[in-house]
Amino acid sequence: MPQDWEAQFREWAKPPGKTEQDRCDNAVSAIRSAIKASDKLRARGISVFAQGSYRNNTNVRKDSGVDIGILCTDTFFFDLPEGTTRETFRIGPATYNYDQFKNEVEAVLVAYFGRAAVTRGNKAFDVHETSYHVEADIAAFFEHRRYQANGTYLEGVELRTDRESNRVINWPEQHYTNGCQKNTDTGTRFKSIVRVLKALSNQMTEQGVRAGDILGFLIECLVWNVPNDRFQNSTYTADVKGALVFLYENTKTEELCPEWGEVSELKYLFRPTQKWTYEQANAFTVTAWNHAGLGGRHEESEPQAVSLHPPGVLRPGLVRHCHGQRVEHAELFRLHAAHPEGSYRRPASCRHLHEMALALEASSKLAYSVSRPERHMARPHSNELERRRRQDIRTHPHDVDDQTELRAHELCHAHR
C-alpha cells in the first residue's frame, strides 16, 4: 500500500512531544546547576544558553541531544576595522584566557556528572544521556565582538579548537531572531518544512539511501534561502515540493547560489571552508524527491510535478530578509575574503563597491578583556544607529582558520 506522504509530512512537521522536550529542558537545567555549584565559575560573568535546533525549535523527534553554550563575558575575542587598534576602543589586555576557562568548565562538568559521563572533544564536551536528560553537546564560549568604526559592534560567540586552535565563531542570537521572523512571515511553515526535511533525511539515512544523510543545520539553512512565497500552499506536500524544486534549480552550479547565507546572514552558506558543498545540497534534493515519490524519478531533469518559478521572480540573493524587512544588496553589502591574508574578492552584485572593499581589510586580534564599567558603556540608541546606517555602509573584517567568509549586513543587535 502506497505511503500517505501528506499525513507523514504533517506528523513530521510537529515539534517533539512534551516528554522529549522536558528531557531537553532538564539537560539545560542540569548544566546551570553544575555552574552554580562551582566556586570558580560562579564568581565570573557566566551565562548558560540553549542553541542549535533545540533553541530554534527546528529539532525533530529522536534527535540525539541538545546543544548548550556556556558563555563567559569576562574576556572577549574581537575583530577590528582597518586603521583602528584595541586602544581605539579602550580594550585592555586579557587577564583570563580561553584555555583556562575551558579547563575549568571540564572540571565543573566532571565534578557534577562524573568522569565517565563527560567526554572532551576538539570543540565541545559531550555529557552522556540519562533517563532524566538527553545527551548534551556543551561548548565553552567567550564573547565575540565584530567592531565597527563608530564603536558599535555585533555580538556573537567564539571558541578555539583544542588541536588546531582554530577560531569558531557563531551567531546564535541573530540565527534565532531571523528564523523566528521567517517563521512568522510564512505562517509557521518555515520551521515545519525544516522539520519535515530533517525527518526525511533521518529516514533515508536509516534505510541506507545514498545522499540522504546531510547535516540538519545545512537543511535549515537551505530552507532559509527558499523564498517565502514557496510556503503559501494548502498542503505540506506542495510546500515540500516547492522548496525542493527551488533548491534543486538553484544549486545546480556554484554561480546560482554564491550569495546564499546561513540563517544568521553573517556567513556565506557555500564556501570552501564549509563542511558541505552545493553539490551535496543538490544531490540531497534529488534523493529526497525520489525517496518520497513526489513526481516520478529524475536524475538530471527537473522535478516533473512542480512548475518552475514564473518570470520576474527575484533571483536568489537579490533581496534578502533582515529582521522581517526586505532590503536590497546595497544595504546588505557583503565582503568575503578569498585568502587568509585578508585580500578581498568582489561579489558580482557589489562590483560597484570594489573601491570601498579594498579599504576594509582588517586583522584578527587575540583575546582581550575590558573592565566591567567599560563593558557596560552606553551604546547608541537604535534610532541613532538607523540614522548612521543611512550615512554609511557597515562592513566587517575577515575571520580566519576554519571559519566561513563573513557576510556583513545591517543588523543592530539588542542591548544587553
Task: Explain how this protein is built.
The chain contains 13 helices and 13 strands. The longest helix has 19 residues. It starts with a helix and ends in a 25-residue tail after the last helix. It has 2 domains: 154 residues, Beta Polymerase, domain 2, CATH 3.30.460; 147 residues, no CATH class. The strands form 3 sheets. Strands 1, 2, 3, 4, 5, 6, 7, 8 and 13 form a 9-stranded mixed β-sheet that branches. It has a two-stranded antiparallel ribbon with strand order 9-10. Strands 11-12 form a two-stranded antiparallel sheet. Helix 7 packs antiparallel against helix 8, helix 7 crosses helix 9 and helix 9 runs antiparallel to helix 10. The protein is an alpha+beta fold and 416 residues long.
